[in-house]
Amino acid sequence: MVDELKKLYKGYEKGDVDSAFNLGQVYFLGLLGQEVNYYLAFKAFMLAAEQNHVLALANVGYCYEFGLGVKKDLFKAEEYYKQAEKLGSLTAKCNLLHLYETGQLKADKQYDFFQEYKILALKGDVRAKYKVGKILGEKSIKNALPYLKPIAEDGYVPAQIELFNLYNKALFEDYSKELNYWATKLLDANYPYAYYVKGKAFINGEQEPKNVNKGLELLKKGAKLGDKRCCLFGGLCYYNGEIVGRNYKNALEFFEMGVKLGCAECAGYASIIYGSGIDVKRDKDKAFKYGAFSASEGVSKGYLALAKCYLYGYGTNIDYEQAYNNLCYCEEDEENDFTWGWLYHNGFYLKKDLKRAGEQYRTAFAYKYNNFYALGVYLSFSIE
Questions:
Q1: What is the value of pTM for the model shown?
Q2: Distance CA 73, CA 87 (A)
Q3: Phi-psi region of 280 (alpha: psi -120 to 50; beta: other; left: phi over 0)
Q4: pLDDT tens for each residue of 344-367
């Protein structure tokens, strides 16, 4: 491995075109035990491109397109793609068409992009097959499959993602097996949403043997990779305590990751946990901050969280009218029932009504609302 690398370097230093291109591949792809280094890759590709190496020209264009090892410059990308296209590079032509199609560059003539991609696809260009499949997939999964499935099976990740998304969006047919299959493939590519699908599959025992711990592990990985659904579902598993033992500390770990990603639903739940102080240190300021953000996005749990903040003075002054107003926006659930009961019980903003309070507490307790005080209040109202 070391000898091979030295040999490439010697050829590169002598200006050998093939050595330069191959050395560029080593650093671009991280081969021969080397770390990916786009700067060194670009330098090597450029040396080969200056000698009209068609693949190197296409790669230099790609580096300019995405700013890999060099400052992003779409006009330079266009220049090198055109040179590579003249020498017969299908990939360069496809990349150039993509820049025109997406409006990143202005084409010097009119193109029928679908037909252009189709011609390139028939000649074997992988990205063109992907583009054709993606366009056809907008109307029919079955029409897209001949283009997407072969290259997806060969490991082309964009095609795997496209198939995964197409199966996920299907409304009238059950593609759960196919969805699970491509989710498994995409775990190797660290595609965040795949972790959500696989995590749920293991937790619910759908398409996979039920394994809650493995499912939660996958959800955590997906959450760390930036998938909001992983953050929310993982947090709810611990928050509700139906799938795994209720643990607000573990739930908060998921919800906090979601908050960092801008997940308003996660913020609502995190606010309630910080306000409760159960399993975690109570943080009234975070309770109010997260609750206000979640409510501003129109999330029911956010309104509830903000109502609790005004009701108990978490991070703000006690304001029963504001508590009532926010509670009115909430959807019905057991946590809302308890809070309504507390308002009627104490006559906060509403006329004191112990009978109505008792009904709300009983409903909250019947739904296993996680508040030991609810149990005590429920029992006190039960002694009649």
A1: 0.72
A2: 22
A3: beta
A4: 888 888 888 888 888 887 777 665
